[in-house]
What does this fold into?
Amino acid sequence: MLIKRISALILCLALALSFSVFAENTSGSENNTAAEAAVQKAESEGYTVVAEDSGLRLYGDMKTGDFALLDKSSGRIWYSGQRDVLDENSEASQLNFGRVKTEIVSMIALNYVQVSTIASTAVPLYQNSYAYCVGEDNVTVGKTDGGYRASYLFEDLDITIPVLVELVDGRLRVTVEGDKIESGDEYIITSIAVLPGFMAEDGSRDGYLFVPSGSGALVPFATGRGEIATYSEMVYGDDLAIEQEEYEGEKQKISVPVYGVKSGDTAVTAIIESGDSTARINSEADSLSSSYTRVYSEYVTAIIDDTTLFESNYENQRIIYGAEQRDSLEDYTVSYTFTHGDKADYSGMAEVYRDYLELKRRAEKPSLRVTLYGAAWKKASFLGIPYRKTMALTTFENAADITDELKEAGAEVSLKYIGWNNDGIDNRKAASKFSPVGALGGKSGFKELYSHLEDSGVSAWFDTDLMLLSKSGNGFSVYSDVCKSIFNTRTPIYDYMLSVYVPYNDRDPHYLLTPDNVSKAADKFLDKYKYDGGISLGDLGSSVYSDFKNGGVRLDCIEFFCKIMEKAGSGNMLALTSPNAYAFKYCNTIFELPMSSDGNLIFSKSVPFLQMVLHGSVSYGAVSGCDLLDCIEYGADPAYYGIYAESETLIETDYNRLYSSTYTNWKNEAVELYAEYAKIYTELYDCVITEHSSENGVSKTVFDNGTVIYTNRGKNEVTADGVTVPANRYAVTGGGADEKA
It folds into this structure.
């Protein structure tokens, strides 16, 4: 009895000390009472303090591996999962059904396939850590220096997955330790969801989720959008080594490994610090089966693909499936940063990620982004013998004339020239040679254009596609040097008929060089490209794919491509098109940064998250077709593309997308748009966008020099913050500016 009383006294003293420290660290908070109660409840449920760092205190459950995180600034406890669903008498328990009820309280959830049945099974099987590990008492938890490690044993699968939870530099960091995963031979793990219920909200607080689709998008809480309102995309886009047999429509990829939640006066920014090349970001709206709106990421550990046997024999066709098998798994780490007050929104999330990237300020003054297309080809015949005829859409001399005319009209020009080398736009052979197209003027014409642009002060970026080829040559084979699928077949890259969403049957597909061969082609080309001006590497900074034939994963591809970009940028100014986050530090400028999300049903609006991260550090252009208000709100240089030749030249060719793009059709509009844009951004090009918001058709963009731009897309004049903004126009105040237009 005496021992029990002493133990009780010690427990009371410990709780009193905990509350004393808590009160000291959260003095001034309006939520002290509620937080104290939350802390007391957490400790009574078995949570103990395992780490403390800056404004966070981490409590761990040494039996289940769950955590409770005290955010001292707000006085709020964040649980690893939504534990209310476990109380059968709670509203949350009554509004959530099926697997979501246990998934939303789990630390991890995994998808897997059985090796013996993979050929016939398309849909992976599923288990989560609460139902299959905690419920079976198969969790081992031990403290570490900065937190704790929980190992989850999925006993019937013979799979153990360790999760490290710690506080580092004022952030919560959660790591699935890839090299410590233990798995038998019977099952293959295809993905591991990390904290699927941590960033989940039921609408009891104001806020939204942030999802990095395209430029960025918001998902409101408690909208009841139904079961179909879900979003799931790979970070850095789909794997290009997986054949796409049908066109799925235009969609914006994820360029940055970031997602977040604004909940009341607190925001949480999640950054996938390692394993981002194999990550998937998922978001779901509340529905009939769940009262929660949530976002989380998933570690994709094996890609599943399918192929059709006996494809030409309709009656005997058979689809079989295969799973990627990796030699080893890397760590998958997500960090969570908490911000408050006026930083508790997507602008604050952009600041967190901008600080994380540590980009250097190297932005350039505004320019008119002009993309010109050089050589193309069309089918022709001579004496009944078919051949390919090269067409000059924009010769080297034409390019010089266009830039001269634009400069004389007052525009500063940044030129990207596509289809000047190798086989022109089509890029039939690997682009490993410096071989300017003869129909455009050949090597001598290229040298004259280069010198002319240099003398006239035009920034020029000569584009080279190092990844694609459709024919053997220049030292690379279209059979042995290209990427192959899980089934050891070449992966074709098609042009699609947009009317019926299937590939053109009269066009040869392209194929992807394996990443190591792209590197070899790049070395050959860059060693021969003796010009120290600008170079563009096409989609190399935005494309990721696996080399299934040789066991190469997406991370290997990124590492190869980063070395190429580093080499290209060391001798030249480097331009990239819509690059992924890992490429930001290598490029001097970006053509066509996404200006919207992909419009998924789950989204309420698009936001310029990417632009807030990059503005002032790396210059970027808008997507061709964006209007003046788009450019001014997002700080994106106006962009146009076209040809010098008349559109009739393109009749009966494969280049319908360039129809009506003749330079004379858009010259005047481009010059006028640039002039109006430049008079504002000549003073703002190197400033950081610190805040963005939009409501009722009026957007507000704030810069770190104090300038504020209001854009009004409505049909009526609006007054915002005391500033009158004309209909379908903009107004600029602060920072020495005071302009309405």
